[in-house]
């Protein structure tokens, strides 16, 4: 498996060789027409990018040559020099030298001596004539070899289509595997097992091709933080961590606005003004950390500040004012349940409208984006110390892990992303509190409801729970969403497996409780439950 350094080197080489091809073409165009402004602008851009990329990779000599040539093209662009005579000869030599240096990086050979070229470039900058030896002449050597890059650029929509096809293949693979086991023919079983391995490898290869570094998004935030901090009259130091963590490019695209909102929120709401920080015994400059890390099959992106933290009592009071919860019920909510109100549509703690906050666009927008990916959004906060928002994201959105279970003779699936645990409990360990069944799971009291009752009870409130209606051991799936847990009683657990989720067709796509369908190896259509919708339904219908 390639190291990250090797991958970066290959990407650098592909871009450097592409830049060289562009330089060769545009400098020839400029020779034919010295007034070609478009070719000149493109040469300036290519030199600037090559300089930046080379310095970032540690190829200082290439960066130095590109920098000096960029300076000359800048002088030509500003009409201080003309592309003619000895200046043109030196620039052609410069492109040749850059080609040789890029090839030296590729071959890991000794870099050519760039000192004579750099000396001539410096003379040109100073308005002096370059020193050209008789034997000196990127004109092109008649025997120059032409080579193509080992890397190609592919539009993401092509990879999307390829991954969809792989998803269809996986569904048929599972059906063939199931049939081979039912028929029991050794040759068919061996072929099915081989197909399973090949499709697995194909799936992960396609998914790997879609991966990009989180840094491609995180590295855009220093300017954002600077601009927002200036607008809010705050001092902020940004720290970026884990930029080399890889994730599906489409996931990164979907969370871009959500991450931008969280960063603005952290500066606008979280961090105090320099004066307030000093009063609180903190440094005037606030700290904001944007980090990424992997945890099992998930990618965790965190936005952490060392600001004022979330005042739970203020949020509780605001939730009561908004009519989101009664005063009596609000008294019994723990801190996590109260903080969950921050994700309600339009909920805002801003006291005044600014460019950053108070415009009715709250954290619900962030939550919706994460929900669409089957991810989770966690919030941890200590008053006076700071707040951390954690985005728990799948590495890929094409194939998801799911828990299969049975209810009324039908198979259903629930994404593992929202599955906290599974337990089997006897009715006598369940108890009723306020008309709701409660179970103690891993030291935490969790409300429990029959999934059958939740799905088929209509629009009215759920009837009060009755423990005596339960017979025998109960299989319960503990789901987690928005810092809340809920136990769903099902008929029986089946198994855990990867599934390809397809959207539901009209008019079934209007049913919020189902996030899509998948096809099992047996050929059965299996509904995939939407955990956020189920959780909201339970809260709305509970007594």
TrEMBL record:
A Pfam family that the UniProt record links to this protein: CheW
Domain HPt: 1-105
Reactions this protein catalyses: ATP + protein L-histidine = ADP + protein N-phospho-L-histidine
Primary enzyme class: transferase
Domain CheW-like: 399-540
Coiled coil stretches, renumbered: none
Protein name: Chemotaxis protein CheA
């Amino acid at each position: 498996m390639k190291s990250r350094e090797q991958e970066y080197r290959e990407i650098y080489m592909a871009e450097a060789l592409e830049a060289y091809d562009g330089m060769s073409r545009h400098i020839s165009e400029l020779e034919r027409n010295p007034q070609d402004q478009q070719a000149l602008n493109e040469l300036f851009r290519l030199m600037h990018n090559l300089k930046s990329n080379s310095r970032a990779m540690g190829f200082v000599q290439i960066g130095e040559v590109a920098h000096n040539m960029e300076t000359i093209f800048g002088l030509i662009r500003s009409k201080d020099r003309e592309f003619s005579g000895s200046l043109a000869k030196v620039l052609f030599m410069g492109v040749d030298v850059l080609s040789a240096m890029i090839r030296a990086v590729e071959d890991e050979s000794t870099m050519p001596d760039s000192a004579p070229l750099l000396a001539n470039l410096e003379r040109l900058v100073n308005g002096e004539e370059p020193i050209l030896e008789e034997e000196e002449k990127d004109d092109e050597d008649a025997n120059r070899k032409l080579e193509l890059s080992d890397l190609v650029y592919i539009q993401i929509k092509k990879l999307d289509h390829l991954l969809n096809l792989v998803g269809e293949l996986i569904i048929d693979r599972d059906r063939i595997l199931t049939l081979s086991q039912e028929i029991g023919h050794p040759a068919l079983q061996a072929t099915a097992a081989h197909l399973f391995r090949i499709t697995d490898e194909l799936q992960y290869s396609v998914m790997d091709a879609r991966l990009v570094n989180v840094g491609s998004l995180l590295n855009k935030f220093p300017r954002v933080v600077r601009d927002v901090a200036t607008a809010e009259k705050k001092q902020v130091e940004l720290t970026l961590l884990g930029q080399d963590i890889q994730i599906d490019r489409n996931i990164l695209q979907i969370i871009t606005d959500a991450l931008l909102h969280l960063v603005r929120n952290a500066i606008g709401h979280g961090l105090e003004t320099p004066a307030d920080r000093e009063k609180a015994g903190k440094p005037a400059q606030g700290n904001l950390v944007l980090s990424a890390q992997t945890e099992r099959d998930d990618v965790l992106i965190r936005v952490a500040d060392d600001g004022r933290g979330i005042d739970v009592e203020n949020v509780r009071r605001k939730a009561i004012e908004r009519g989101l919860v009664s005063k009596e019920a609000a008294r019994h909510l723990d801190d996590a349940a109260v903080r969950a109100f921050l994700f309600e549509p339009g909920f805002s703690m801003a006291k005044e409208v600014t460019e950053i906050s108070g415009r009715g666009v709250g954290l619900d927008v962030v939550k919706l984006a994460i929900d669409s990916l089957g991810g989770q959004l966690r919030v941890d906060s200590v008053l006076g110390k700071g707040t951390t928002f954690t985005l728990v994201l799948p590495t890929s959105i094409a194939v998801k892990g799911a828990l299969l279970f049975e209810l009324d003779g039908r198979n259903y699936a629930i994404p593992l992303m929202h599955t906290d645990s599974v337990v089997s409990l006897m009715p006598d360990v369940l108890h009723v509190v306020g008309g709701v069944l409660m179970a103690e799971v891993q030291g935490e009291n969790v409300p429990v409801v029959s999934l059958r009752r939740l799905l088929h009870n209509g629009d009215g409130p759920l009837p009060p729970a009755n423990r005596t209606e339960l017979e025998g051991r109960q299989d319960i799936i503990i789901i987690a969403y928005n810092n809340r847990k809920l136990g769903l009683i099902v008929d029986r657990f089946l198994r855990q497996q990867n599934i390809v989720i397809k959207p539901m067709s009209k008019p079934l796509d209007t049913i919020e409780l189902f996030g899509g369908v998948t096809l099992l190896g047996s050929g059965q259509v299996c509904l995939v439950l939407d955990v956020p919708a189920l959780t909201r339904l339970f809260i709305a219908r509970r007594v």
